[in-house]
């Protein structure tokens, strides 16, 4: 039976006091906490399976609240995400929910926000989505390909800190978003990486590619996390390595 294996790790890094990243893998969520080692979950290929990373906005109150809200909602909606339109509607619903939660808090969470990026694995395709600068990459024989759209433009001269052009929440007044949604083919052995910029900012793309070429599943997730730590761990690090596999039939024994 075809299956989907998802190996993930989430860690605050070396410089942040706490983790504002959250993660959804099917119905399972990991919200603003720390894993000491990668966890691998395996699902039968069939019902739409969502894998999403949300990176709460630093410098805003409640980043961890916004990221947790988004992945929990995506986990709930995941089995119904059967089309690009459904995914786009779900991300827009998450955006509205972040603003509603901020408004209902009495002002303490004003302008809380988060990015989100992920996949919905279906029997014959993967739906790729993102808002912000968390990433989805495909790892194949031809190398590593960025499937998400980076909402973080290059730094202008003299401005060391970049700003995302859109995110879920993130401003005092409601702002609509335009989620990036696309469809990628799904074949046996297909592999993807879903991650926050705590990995992709400090670790060069060729290093990420080399790790994914050398390792699968939990070992790949661990080595990616370790590379981000070795690069200084300047931000929260959340990594999910996704692989589609085909179970081998048991060997036939002769009499």
Briefly summarize what is shown.
25% of the residues lie in helices and 32% in strands. The chain has 255 residues and is α+β, with helices and mostly antiparallel strands.
Features:
255 residues; six-stranded antiparallel beta sheet; 5 helices; PPM-type-like_dom_sf; PPM-type_phosphatase-like_dom; Protein serine/threonine phosphatase
CATH superfamily: PPM-type phosphatase domain
CATH class division: Alpha Beta
- Helical residue percent band: 10-25%
Low-confidence spans: 249-255
Distance between the termini: 26 Å
Taken together, the total number of domains comes to 1
The fraction of residues in strands falls at 25-35%
The third-level CATH topology is Phosphatase 2c, domain 1
- Total strands: the figure is 13
Q: What is the architecture at the second tier of CATH? A: 4-Layer Sandwich
Main pleated sheet: 7 strands, antiparallel
Q: Report the C-alpha radius of gyration, rounded.
A: 18 Å
Q: Indicate the mean pLDDT.
A: 92
Structural class of the helices, strands and pairings? alpha+beta
CA-based shape: globular
Q: Give, in order, the helices and strands.
A: EEEEEHHEEEEEEEHHHE
What's the total helix number?
A: 5
Domain PPM-type phosphatase: 3-244
InterPro entries: PPM-type-like_dom_sf, PPM-type_phosphatase-like_dom
Organism: Streptomyces zinciresistens K42
Pfam families: PP2C_2
């Amino acid at each position: 039976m075809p299956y989907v294996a998802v190996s993930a790790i989430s860690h605050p890094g070396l410089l942040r006091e706490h983790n504002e990243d959250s993660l959804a893998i099917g119905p399972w969520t990991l919200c603003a906490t720390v894993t000491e080692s990668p966890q691998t979950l395996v699902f039968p290929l069939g019902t739409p399976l969502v894998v999403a990373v949300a990176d709460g906005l630093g410098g805003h109150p409640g980043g961890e609240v916004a990221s947790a809200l988004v992945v929990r909602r995506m986990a709930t909606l995941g089995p119904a995400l059967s089309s690009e339109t459904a995914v786009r509607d779900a991300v827009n619903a998450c955006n509205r929910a972040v603003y509603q939660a901020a408004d209902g808090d009495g002002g303490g969470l004003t302008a809380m926000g988060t990015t989100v990026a992920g996949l919905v694995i279906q029997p014959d395709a993967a739906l790729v989505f993102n808002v912000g600068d968390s990433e989805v990459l495909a790892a194949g024989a031809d190398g590593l390909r960025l499937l998400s759209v980076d909402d973080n433009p290059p730094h202008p001269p003299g401005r060391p800190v970049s700003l995302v052009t859109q995110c879920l929440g993130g401003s005092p007044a409601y702002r609509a978003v335009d989620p990036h949604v696309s469809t990628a083919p799904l074949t046996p052995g297909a592999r993807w990486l879903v991650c926050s910029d705590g990995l992709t900012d400090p670790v060069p793309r060729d290093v990420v590619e080399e790790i994914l070429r050398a390792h699968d599943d939990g070992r790949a997730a661990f080595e990616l996390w370790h590379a981000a730590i070795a690069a200084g761990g300047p931000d929260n690090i959340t990594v999910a390595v996704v692989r589609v596999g085909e179970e081998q039939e048991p060997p036939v024994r002769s009499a």
